[in-house]
Design goal:
globular, alpha/beta, 6-stranded parallel beta sheet, 44% helix, 257 residues, 9 helices, single chain
Length: 257
């Protein structure tokens, strides 16, 4: 009843649903991993994915890490999971070597601004990026449309610090880099020496930034907002305010004298 970690590999099981269907009531689970060694040919029964969905729908669940690797997960079940992410406790999710297509990724991207708990996401080797699959047998992946939607969503997300895709996307990496800085500052800002804040501001503005992005208005705005966030949560503004106050007091004293 109080199982917290469960890893299941269904490569050798004939009836995997018999083990997974009760998962919907395993509210004490904190980590759930379901996978198969068969990369492309293996597909779990729908009832298995339904069990995972029931667990996420249970408001008492404590799940923080979910891995579904090579389970045959398709857009229908994936989008149902995505709809629950804004209210879930999930911090890490991996959906790799599955059947996620463009519609699933676009649905995830649309939810990014509402997701607050998720920190690490992995979408490796799915249908939408067509890396393990024969392009001639699949509809167009609409890869660029998906990446653009993910970027738009990440510009409004402050929780995801790692977004692992099959192909490296520098603009998305920049967003997650900034989120890592944001999180670190909120956790440790009081213990950072004042003299280091100028260096931090410089890194927020320049690190991983590519000159070729200068024409991207969205990224320019995001970059400016990120620098302002760091400045707002640093002691720099309060120090400047104290200094200005001291200078005003000194001027008043001089006039009195």
């Amino acid at each position: 009843d109080h199982l917290k970690v469960l890893h299941l590999d269904f490569h050798y099981l004939k009836k995997p649903q018999m083990l997974v269907e009760p998962i919907g009531n395993a509210v004490h689970l904190q980590e759930l991993s379901i996978m198969s060694l068969d990369l492309l040919s293996f597909t779990l029964p729908r009832s298995v994915h339904d069990g995972v969905l029931r667990l996420l729908q249970n408001t008492q669940n404590r799940l923080q890490k979910l891995t579904l690797r090579s389970t045959g997960l398709d857009d229908q079940h994936f989008m149902a999971i995505v709809e629950l992410l804004p209210t879930s406790r999930l911090a890490d999710i991996e959906i790799s070597i599955n059947k996620i297509q463009a519609q699933g990724i676009l649905t995830f991207a649309a939810q990014l601004s509402r997701i607050k708990s998720l920190k690490t996401v992995a979408f490796l080797q799915n249908l939408w990026d067509c890396t393990l699959f024969d392009r001639s047998t699949l509809p167009p992946a609409r890869y660029e449309e998906c990446i653009d939607a993910l970027l738009q969503g990440m510009l409004e997300n402050y929780s995801i610090v790692y977004l692992n895709l099959t192909r490296s996307e520098k603009k998305l990496e920049y967003c997650t880099h900034i989120n890592r800085i944001r999180r670190k500052i909120l956790e440790t800002s009081s213990s950072i020496p004042l003299e280091l804040w100028t260096l931090i501001l410089e890194k927020v503005g320049t690190r991983t930034w590519h000159p070729t992005w200068e024409d991207d208005v969205r990224l320019q705005k995001y970059r400016a907002n990120s620098v302002y966030f760091v400045l707002q949560n640093s002691p720099i503004l309060s120090s400047i305010g104290s200094l200005c106050c001291q200078q005003r007091c000194q001027r008043k004293r001089k006039r009195v004298v």
